[in-house]
Every structure is written in structure tokens, then in C-alpha cells.
Amino acid sequence: MNAEHSTASQEKTLDALLGFEWVEVTPDRVRVEWDVDTRHLQPFGIVHGGVHCAAHETAASVAAQAWLGERGIVVGVNNSTDFLRQARPGDRLTTIAAPIHRGRASQLWRLETTNADGKLVAQGQVRLAHLDGAVPPEFLQFVRDRQG
């Protein structure tokens, strides 16, 4: 595990465009931090629910792939996210992925996004299916770089 803050390896990925910082990446837990700014907002000045969904699915996908390793690839098949508290520009949010179930054909991950006070902002679950396929070498390096 490497607690050093880093951004995604490719500048044009969704997580990089949204400013997600990969703080912890292991097969058992992923932690992403991000600062809310205007790119995350819906018209009423609070974080758009789709950004929370993206944070959750991204964290779960990286965690699930880190666990599966080179035995195939993972793809999201369901994302259920509840929005519990508003977040506004300047807020620092942390999204944590933890496994609920990891099986032969699929995985289920629990996600929690909290604010700097530790209050729950969004929570949910993401289910991912395992497919045959080669894992991109860049992803394997991304995980290795963050595991220490």
C-alpha cells in the first residue's frame, strides 16, 4: 500500500478529469480523495449525483480488478448509489471501497463517500462481472505503483 496521493496514470481518463486522487489501492480496499469544484456541480450548486456514481464505480472497479489480477477483466453491471448529504465547492471528499462478496463470476463492493468531518455523503453498492480478457499492462503498473 502506498499512501502517497497520486492521480490516475492517464490524463484523459474519467477519474483524472474529475480530479480523483488514488490514496490507497489494494485487493481489499481502495481509497480515493477529491476536492469538489465547479466541474462536479449540478445547476443548484451541489455535487451532481452522477459524480458520486462515477466515484463509486471507479473505486469499485479498480479494487475488483486489483483482486482479480490477471485472471480476466471486470465490468460494472449494477451501480446503486444513495445521496445522503450535500457537498459543495471546497469540500474534500473521500470514497472508500470494501468487498462484500468476491466469487468466481462476480464481485459486490460497498462504497462510502464521506466529507472532512467524517459524515456520510453518499453510500452504495457496485456489482461487477468477471469476463475473459487481458488486463492492460498500464493498469497492472498503476496498481503495483500504489501498493508499495
TrEMBL record:
Pfam families: 4HBT (PF03061)
Keywords assigned: Hydrolase
Highest taxon listed in the record's lineage: Bacteria
InterPro entries according to UniProt: HotDog_dom_sf, PAAI_dom, Thioestr_dom
GO cellular component: cytosol
Domain Thioesterase: 44-122
Recorded GO MF terms: 1,4-dihydroxy-2-naphthoyl-CoA thioesterase activity
Family recorded in the similarity comment: Belongs to the thioesterase PaaI family.
Protein's recorded name: Uncharacterized protein (TIGR00369 family)
